Structures are given as structure tokens and as C-alpha cells.
Amino acid sequence: MDVFDAIKKRRSIRAFKSDDISSEIVEKLLEAASWAPSAGNIQPWEFIVIRKPEIKEKLAEAALSQTFIEEAPVVIVVCANENRSSQGYGVRGKTLYCIQDTAAAIQNIHLAACSFGLGTSWIGAFREEEAREILKIPNGVRPVAIIPVGFADESPPPRKRRPLNQIVHYETF
Ligand SMILES: Cc1cc2nc3c(=O)[nH]c(=O)nc-3n(C[C@H](O)[C@H](O)[C@H](O)COP(=O)(O)O)c2cc1C
Asked: What pTM, to 2 d.p., does this model score?
């Protein structure tokens, strides 16, 4: 699938079949993530791959009871290593670059998954401290997104986009 097709075909999927995903596919998703751009090539991302039902269940609870998360055979939590970014770029690295870098990695996971015929969603609504405890995430590393990955059990229609003439500015704002 070409990149533009994946961009247009990707949807947030919130219902998953129980079919498993191979570790090889999960590694391909993580490889795609690792090829994202990052400020100064610092690559401040960390990935936690979760398959254990009891951890998925706790995570879904921390994500304000978005229970479809636990339906997915694999959940990837993408974290930003603030320490790495701040060592390179101080406050701007910690507060901005590491979030931008991990967001680029997250999007690569979504697009790669779409190209493999898998469904994902980007979960940003979760109680951060609770997720940190469940996953034993150390200080200086911030969980940014929870991504359930699996075969879609729904085909949602595309959600509306703001038209280009409302969002694009030429030369000045
Ligand atoms: C930063 C961020 C946080 C999000 N958090 C959630 C979430 O907690 N739960 C959820 O179901 N979808 C979440 N989404 C998905 C959006 O709702 C979705 O991308 C948007 O409605 C557009 O739909 P589409 O992804 O199908 O194109 C999030 C997306 C982003 C980028």
C-alpha cells in the first residue's frame, strides 16, 4: 500500500477481533516507529509491548474505562524519554521535541499497521500516574499514547476534515 493510501485509509478502530498478531508483525511496527524523525536524531522514544490480559485490563481502566483496549491482542504504549531530550536540548527538548518525536513515531505505527491490514487507535486520554505505576515506568520517561493493535471488528466511515481553504495560509497567517 502506498503511503498516501495508508494515510487516507487509516481510521481509529475501537473494536477488535480476538485473532492474534505475530511478534514479527509487531516488530515491523516498532521498526517503522524507530525510523521516525527526531530532533538531533536523539530518538527519545521507548515502547512497551503488552500482551498479558491482566495488564491490558488495568491499562484500559486507567484509560478512563476504554474497555476496547483490552480486546486488542497487542497494546503498544509509546513513551517519551524526557531525560534524553533534555540532555540534548534543555527545556525545549523536554517539553516540546520529545513529544513531537514520539508523536511522529506513533503515527508511523498507525500507518504501518494500516498497510498490514491491522486496526489501531491513538489513546491519549488516560490517567498518567496510574499508567506509570501499572507499567513500572521510571521517572523522566512519560507515557504519551496507548495504541491497541489488532484486526478491526468494525469499519468506521471517515471522519470529516476541515477543508484546506480553512487551514492553509499562504505567505503569512
Ligand atoms: C492526541 C490524541 C489523543 C486521542 N485520544 C483518544 C482516546 O483517548 N480515545 C479514543 O477513542 N480516541 C482518541 N483519539 C482518536 C481521535 O478521536 C481520532 O483520531 C479522531 O476522531 C479522528 O478520527 P480518525 O482517527 O478515525 O481519522 C486520539 C487522537 C489523538 C491524536
From this structure: 0.98
- Asked if the structure places residue 92 within a domain, the reply is yes
The predicted-structure confidence for 93-125, as pLDDT tens digits, reads as follows 999 999 999 999 999 999 999 999 999 999 999
Q: What CATH code is carried by the domain that includes residue 8?
A: 3.40.109.10
33 lines ligand 1 (CB under 6 A): no
Q: Which atom of ligand 1 is nearest to the CA of 146?
A: 8
Q: Looking at the domain assignment, is residue 170 inside a domain?
A: no
Q: Is 159 in the pocket of ligand 1 (CB under 6 A)?
A: yes
- Counting Cα atoms < 13 Å in the Cβ hemisphere of 156 gives 15
In a domain, 167, yes or no: no
